[in-house]
Amino acid sequence: RTAAGIVTRWKYPGGESRWLEGNLLALVGADGKVSGYRGTHRDITERKYQQERILRLTRMLQMQSGINAAVVRIRERDALLRETCRLALQVGGYEDVMLSL
Question: Rounded to 5 degrees, what are φ and ψ at 94?
Answer without folding.
Answer: -75, 145
